[in-house]
Amino acid sequence: MKRIGILTSGGDAPGMNAAIRAVTRKAIFHGVEVFGINYGFAGLVAGDIRRLEIADVGDKIQRGGTFLYSARYPEFATQEGQLKGIEQLKKFGIEGLVVIGGDGSYHGAMALTKHGFPAVAIPGTIDNDIPGTDFTIGFDTAINTVLESLDRIRDTATSHVRTFIIEVMGRDAGDIALWAGVAGGADEIIIPEHDFDMTSVAKRIKEGRDRGKKHCLIILAEGVMGGNEFAEQLSKHGDFHARVSILGHVVRGGSPTARDRVLASKFGGHAVDLLLEGKGGLCVGMLQNEVVSASIVETLEQGKHKPDLSLYALNKELSF
Q: Is 170 annotated in some ligand binding site?
């Protein structure tokens, strides 16, 4: 394999640039040309492709977002869009593709695989909702960003004896809320993967106040409901001086943590190794602290991400 391409797709995540850097430099080290594709699958179909040199990925490892940019492109779900993309890859002489992104990006890579084009997917999403890996690029940075906000909000909550509902991103997964909630000492963690009872939530807040607790932090995954809706439902059980803080897209940005930079570097290097071995149709991941690869078709069609619900049970025991 003499030429490989790389693109980022879907929502940006801290560490994507570190992965691009790893793919580019590892490939060039082995004498392989690298082409960056701007704006994900939209740029692929449009032919927005350029050669990357070592200097192009310099001073990028510490930067959030993705310098290759990203864009939603639903048309790539159609066979027509996929074949146009393959046509552009062949036009530039690209023999293998590395796709960095989340669920939609994986499906794009899987489509290319089914058409016989070698593609390797790297999990890059703050949501940590991709099967076949314990952790995704960007997740660690995201939970640390949420944690910093939780620590700051606690100061205000204590000063005014208030209940704060902190809504965080995560799409349909509760990993961000779960991990940040445990690390931040949240009183309640509300996630899509576990039922909750508003009456019980209200009771725990009252019990805390009765013993002199000056604040209550509830971290809410967006996949359950919005923060304002949650506050409205909670108000039916009493006046808890509730305030809502929606962290939103701020959680996606910022310089990646050391963990995300190392994870991205490992994933990027492994993806190049797979392509140099002539292997495609794979996705890389981290399982039990080991970098692994598996069939992208089997991973998507048979696998399902599951959060670590032992953390949920632990938080119940620690936050009473």
A: yes
